Amino acid sequence: MVPKKSNPAQTAPARAGNDGLGMYLQRIFALMFGAILLTAVSTYATMMWGTSLAFNISADGYVTGLTPLFYIVMFGGFGLSIFAQVRAFSMRPAIGGLLLAVYAVLMGFVIMPLVFFALSTNPWSVLQAFVIAAVMFGCMALFGYKTSRNLGFLGVFLFIGMIGLVLVGVASFIWPMLTGGTFGTIVAVIGVIIFALFTAYDMQFLKNAYATAGGTDEQKNQLAILGALHLYISFIAMFQYILSLLNRR
After folding, report:
1. Contact 158/198 with Cβ under 8 angstroms?
2. Would you list the domain boundaries of the chain?
3. For 123, which DSSP code?
4. Of 178, 182, 241, 247, which residue is least crowded by CB atoms under 10 Å?
C-alpha cells in the first residue's frame, strides 16, 4: 500500500495557524509572568520601605490597622482592572500593557499585609502558597487548553461567585469577624475553586477567540493583554486564598 502524501498547500496554512497560536499564547504568558514579577518586586519594596504607608503603627510599634491609603489603592486597583477590561479593544496595546503593569504594582502593595504577616508567623507558607498556586494554575490552564468540552456554561456561575467573594471582602471591612473561623475558611476554599475554574474557562476562551478572530495584529495584541490580565488576576487570587488557608488560626 502506498502511503498517502500530504498536500503542502493544505499543511502550510495549518502549520502557520499553529505557529500563530503558539506565539499568541507565549505573548499572553510573557505578559502575565512579567506582571507577577512586578507584583513580587512591589510587595518586597513595600515591606522594606513602605510599611508605614499601609499600616497604622502605634507609638509602641504595634500595628493597629490599615491606613486610608491602603483602601484607596485597593479600590483604585479594582476600578483600574475593570476599566482595563472594558476598554481593552479601544486602546492601543502599549497603553493596555502599561495599565497591566500599573495594576500589578498596585496589587503588590495590596497583598503586602497578607504576605507580611505570613512571613512573620510562618515564612515557608509564602513559598508553599506560591508553589501550590502555580501547580493548580498550570493544571487548570492545560485542562482549559486541551479539553474538547465547552466550558462556556461556567461563565455565569463563576461571575456570580466572584461577585459574592467581592461582597464578602467588602463586608469584612465592616465586620472583621467574617474573615475568621469556619466561615472564613469556607470563603477561602470557595475562592480557590472559583479562580481555578476561571483559569480553565479563560484559557479555553482565549484559545477559541484566537481561532475565530479575523482582525488585525493590533486586535490580537489587545486580546493577548486582556487574556494576560484575566490569567494574572486568577493566579494572584488563588495565591492569596491559599496563603490565607495556610495561615489560619
Report:
1. yes
2. 22-246
3. T
4. 182
28 close to 227: Cβ distance less than 8 angstroms: yes
CB 78 within 8 A of CB 23: no
1-10 residues labelled b (16+ CB within 10 A) or e (exposed):
eeeeeeeeee
pLDDT at residue 57, rounded to an integer: 79
pTM over 0.85: yes
Model confidence at 249, pLDDT cuts 50, 70, 90, reads low
Cell of 109: 502593595
**In the predicted structure, residue 17 carries a pLDDT above the cut 80:** no
Let me know: does 39 contact 108? Beta carbons within 8 Å.
Answer: yes
Angstrom CA distances, 64 to 56, 94, 118, 133, 136, stand at: 5, 41, 17, 30, 35
**110 closest CA partner among 166, 83, 71, 57:** 71
